[in-house]
Amino acid sequence: MEAPVVPRHIAVVMDGNGRWAQRRLLPRVAGHKQGVHAVRSLIRAARERGVEVLTVFAFSSENWQRPPDEVSFLMDLLLRALREEVDKLHSNDVRFRVVGDVGALGRETQQLIDQAQALTASNRGLCLNVAVNYGGRWDIEQAVARAVAAGDARAFAHYLSFADQPDPDLFIRTGGERRISNFLLWQLAYTELYFCDTLWPDFGEAEFAQALAWFAARERRFGRTGEQVREPVALPG
Ligand code: FPP
After folding, report:
1. Is 182 a catalytic residue?
2. Which residue CA neighbors atom 2 of ligand 1 most closely?
3. Within-domain flag for 30
4. 43: Cβ below 6 Å to ligand 1?
5. CATH number at residue 184
6. I need a surface site. Which of 60, 68, 120, 140 has the fewest CB within 10 A?
7. Does residue 66 fall inside a structural domain?
8. Helix spans in the chain (H)
9. What is the pTM of this model?
10. 18 touches ligand 1 (CB under 6 Å)
11. CA 211 to centroid of ligand 1, rounded, Å
12. pLDDT, tens digit (0-9, with 9 covering 90-100), for 52-77
């Protein structure tokens, strides 16, 4: 199977905000603030290129362990984005979803998430998933628990957060680390993994284009051989 030139679903770990700020002798949170610009630019570029689903990791289940000031700042950033960005996303035909254990978030945040999801539910341009208080292990555990409660443990994958979406074709992690960090553990089974050293606030259109060019050159085999992929055997009849 040829890799589609444009990935249908891109998942992104936006790493390097803290270092971006520290290199400028700024507090770490200044990097997160700047990171929001890079998110906006990525959403625009993904829409323009015809990407169907974009998933960004804004806050992991483990990020609660950061210093309390940084956790509050990230939560405020989310709240502010919900207040200020949703209308613009809606007018650009973006379907907005938050994925994760949202029950642990503030009441106003949860209300705004519900409103934003309802407002944009029938948009068909780009589906933007923002992972908040999300962890791949949490997702598998909650799916198993729901499947068991429904008496059909084997069907657990239907209860995963992304069950109605294609698996990511391309995973991007900025910031130089080469790890998954408990992101989409189940869904990344056959995803192409792209790592770059660029710190997230510096990840602009040129860096995105580079990631897409790298992806377009991959041969996706899904367990088959290169020969099978390049010369598919004609089926009888
Ligand atoms: C990792 O960089 C980044 C995060 C934990 C937060 C990412 C959040 C944003 C970019 C803001 C997005 C906001 C919305 C509302 C979508 P790091 O802090 O681990 O950087 P470091 O590795 O340099 O310390």
Report:
1. no
2. 15
3. yes
4. no
5. 3.40.1180.10
6. 68
7. yes
8. 17-23, 28-49, 68-84, 86-91, 107-120, 136-149, 205-216, 226-230
9. 0.93
10. yes
11. 19
12. 999 999 999 999 999 999 999 999 99
